[in-house]
Amino acid sequence: MKRMWILLFVFAFTASAQQSALTSVQPGIVRVVPAFLIGDYAGSMGPLQIHLQFSTVNNGDIVGTVNGIKVDRVSTVGNMLSFRLPAIGATWTGTVDNRLLTGTWRQGSQTQPLNFRKE
Question: What does the pLDDT read at residue 75?
Answer without folding.
Answer: 87
